[in-house]
Design goal:
Layout (H helix, E strand, L loop, with lengths): L1 E4 L6 H4 L1 E4 L9 E11 L1 H8 L15 E9 L11 E4 L14 E5 L3 E3 L6 H4 L2 H15 L6 E4 L5 H12 L3 E6 L2 H10 L3 E4 L5 H8 L5 E6 L2 H4 L3 H4 E9 L11 H6 L3 E4 L7 H17 L11 E2 L3 H10 L5 E4 L1
Parallel strand pairs: 8-9, 8-11, 9-10, 11-12, 12-13, 14-15
Antiparallel strand pairs: 1-2, 3-4, 3-6, 3-15, 4-5, 5-7
Helix pairs in contact: 4-5, 4-11
Length: 325
């Protein structure tokens, strides 16, 4: 089969290759999926660069997210699943063979049925962005009457987080870095968008909330934004952290202590079974009912152009970057 791969860490154009590799077979408890699309996430880019972890295998096929059709079922898996349209999660987590290939074999539970009305491009956006967003909103305890501040509201995770929070009845304030991104966040359903490059985030949040502060912050980069916490969060509020741009962050410890602030970290790849099932149910319900908007970055990329796809993520492309297999 054709696949994209790298054998050492480095820049996209230096290390990414496309060529023939062995086609996988579905083992016991596994399905093989003929892939139509592969999603490229910031974590895929950081892994290839070696900034988060060094390559642990002689050859690595990248990307954890993707969508396609099951064409093979291993022992212990119902043969009726063959022909099923599916989306994938954790395709390349702790294994060397991800979704940037014509086929992938993986545990059957990691191939989730994709409703017929949802395209494969949207299916490639769910494993990391949508599931991260759904779990962050769950941890924030968003309900009607609460207010959330979602950092990076125009990002892949942020847009989904806005939608899940609004589905719970919460009011949403999003931070963005441009007028174009403010438009994107508002289109996703945010009630307010604050351009942090042009406006004082704390002042705007306090004006919007009548100086009460928000009930929770959903944070994509704790290292960069921890200093904002005292200016935006109410006493006994929560900070839900799913990412950080640096290995260490300086927290406003005295404020967090005296105001009884909860700081909750999570890594979407390591959700336990109960957490995963809850978010899968939420995502699939939204897909079935057609209530989830998907913003796929344009253009999409051919497998042969995978280096350009990685570079689009590095530039901060608006929407989810998708590779067509």
């Amino acid at each position: 089969m054709r696949a994209a791969y790298y054998e050492t860490n480095g820049s996209a154009r230096e290390v990414l290759r496309v060529g023939e590799v062995e086609t996988p077979q579905a083992g016991p408890g596994e399905v093989r999926v003929k892939l139509a699309t592969s999603g490229v996430n910031p974590s895929d880019v950081k892994s290839r660069q070696g900034s988060t972890r060094k390559i642990a295998w002689p050859r690595l096929i990248p990307h954890s997210d993707g969508a396609g059709v099951i064409d093979q079922a291993g022992d212990g898996v119902a043969k009726s699943r063959i022909g099923e349209r599916v989306w994938l999660w954790n395709g390349q987590w702790k294994r060397a063979f991800g979704t940037a290939a014509e086929y992938i074999a993986l545990p059957a539970e990691q191939a989730v049925k994709l409703p017929d009305k949802v395209g494969f491009e949207a299916g490639a956006c769910l494993g990391i962005p949508a599931m991260t967003a759904s779990h962050a909103v769950t941890l924030s305890h968003a309900v009607k009457g609460t207010t959330l501040l979602i950092a990076g509201g125009a990002g892949a995770v942020g847009q989904y987080a806005i939608q899940f929070a609004k589905a719970h009845g919460a009011r949403v304030i999003a931070t963005v870095s441009s007028a174009e991104k403010a438009k994107v966040a508002l289109e996703a359903g945010a009630d307010h968008a604050i351009d942090y490059r042009r406006e004082n985030v704390g002042e705007r949040v306090m004006a919007i909330t009548d100086r009460h502060g928000v009930d929770a912050v959903i944070e994509m980069d704790l290292a960069a934004n921890a200093k904002l916490i005292p200016g935006v969060l109410r006493p006994k509020g929560s900070v839900i952290v799913y990412g950080t741009g640096a290995a260490e962050a300086t927290l406003p410890a005295f404020f967090c202590l005296t105001q009884s602030i909860r700081v909750q970290f999570f890594l979407v790849y390591e959700l336990d079974h109960a957490m995963r099932e809850r978010e899968l149910t939420a995502i699939n319900s939204a897909l079935v009912h057609g209530t989830l908007q998907h913003r796929v970055a344009q253009p999409t990329f051919a497998l042969a152009d995978i280096a350009a796809a990685h570079e689009a993520v590095e530039r901060g492309s608006i929407g989810n970057v998708v590779v067509r297999i």
